[in-house]
Amino acid sequence: MSELGVFTLVIVFSFSLWWLYKQHHRQVIQSRANLLNGFAKVMTVSETHFNAAGYASLKGVFNQTPLSLRVEVDNLTARKIPVMWLHIKLPNTPAINGSLDILVRPQNTEVYSPSWQWDQPIKPLAGWPEHARYMSRDVAPELQAIDADVRTIFADQKVKELLITPDAVRLTYLIRQADRGNYLLLRSVQFDDEPIDSDQIAALTRQLQRLQQNLIGGKNS
Predict the structure, then answer these.
(1) What is the 3-state secondary structure (H, E, C) of 118-146?
(2) I need a surface site. Which of 30, 75, 98, 209 has the fewest CB within 10 A?
(3) 67: how many CB neighbours lie within 10 A of its CB?
(4) What are the strands of the beta sheet with 56-62, ordered from one edge?
(5) Is there a contact between 183 and 61 (Cβ–Cβ < 8 Å)?
(6) pLDDT tens-digit profile of 90-114?
């Protein structure tokens, strides 16, 4: 085969690989974009945004309350299978006094948690999660007012963090774990691309709303 023929084959092969990569990349981005597709049936969606990796965030109204949802992939922890979190956030109207962060199984790699910059430890109530970090930025809200809510929320082992600030309450929830085989063998981060169960998240949001109502009715500790 002539040099021109070999060069032509290399060009065709390289283009084919590039085309297959682009096709796969489009499919991955589309599957990521579809993760929050089912939420229009449980909330009125007013805004949809996508980050550089194609993961979505939504803003809208749920049960007459503003709601924000954001997907985040955590692959920063060494020797740990990457995971996908969903942040569920409700603004406090009116604003409350005090702050509290409950972070279970802390590893100091939770970049989404502001409490690593907080310096006021809080003593938890009896029956609250063990192996958790309890911190406040200043003073905590009335803990007794949310005792039952905290117990109920953290009964679900997929709950990672409950964050309470004057302006909002936020729940961080484990949605997916990356495919173990692909990650251990190839260091490839692949998740199940089925849409997230909107009914499950709606139930968590209703529980967060109940906690919020009890916060607004409570006082500082």
Answers:
(1) CCEECCCCCCCCCCEEEEECCCCECHHHH
(2) 30
(3) 25
(4) 44-50, 56-62, 65-74, 83-91, 168-177, 159-164, 100-104, 132-136, 120-121
(5) no
(6) 999 888 889 999 999 998 889 999 9
Q: Helix, strand, or coil here: 5?
A: helix
Question: Is the dihedral angle over the CA atoms 155, 84, 31, 40 positive or is it negative?
Answer: positive
For residue 72, give the 3-state DSSP assignment.
strand
Q: How far apart are CA 74 and CA 110, in angstroms?
A: 8
Query: pLDDT digits over 111-160, tens only?
Result: 999 999 999 999 999 999 999 999 999 999 999 999 999 999 999 999 99
82, two tokens: 């990457």
Q: Which residues pair with 56 in a beta bridge?
A: 50
Q: What is the pLDDT of residue 51?
A: 84
Q: Decide if 115 contacts 103 (C-beta within 8 A).
A: yes
- Measured between alpha carbons, how far is 163 from 98 in angstroms, rounded to an integer? 11
Report the predicted TM-score, pTM, of the whole model to 2 decimal places: 0.81
Spans of all domains in the chain: 3-217
Do 218 and 145 form a contact (C-beta atoms < 8 A)? yes
For residue 126, what are its two tokens?
Answer: 């009896």
